[in-house]
Amino acid sequence: MEEKCLCEASDVLIFSCSGGSNVGQISNQAAVDLARDGKGRLFCLAGIGGHVKAITEATKAGEVLVAIDGCPVHCAKKTLEHAGFSPQVHVVVTDLGVEKAHKLEADPVATRSVAEMVEKGLKG
Ligand code: SF4
Hints:
Elements lengths: L11 E5 L5 H15 L4 E2 L2 H5 L3 H8 L3 E6 L5 H8 L6 E4 L15 H15 L2
Parallel strand pairs: 1-2, 1-3, 3-4
Helix pairs in contact: 1-5
Bound molecules: iron/sulfur cluster.
The site of iron/sulfur cluster has 11 residues, from helix 1.
């Protein structure tokens, strides 16, 4: 079977939990940065949770789904799974040693590390 580098996928859809904490905001900022760098398209997790038809149909057309979660509650991954999707790349901010706190600053160093983890995951 031919191996395929996921980073070559023409349609990478990125979902972040975007939660109300530092790690949630890091997940959001990493997703924004990845989209701005052309690594994928930032997609609407709320639309998946709301079963919005246009968004679920567009997600079905995505070749690679990325879920970025702030913490082990895994809201982004669970929301996707609840709608029948299985993200091929899943990164959890707290797994990188960032402690969850109820503040909203997205630390730039942690954000860069999360984006790099996603890029690594896309390379397979
Ligand atoms: S995964 Fe954690 S940080 Fe993200 S929305 Fe859920 S509880 Fe909040």
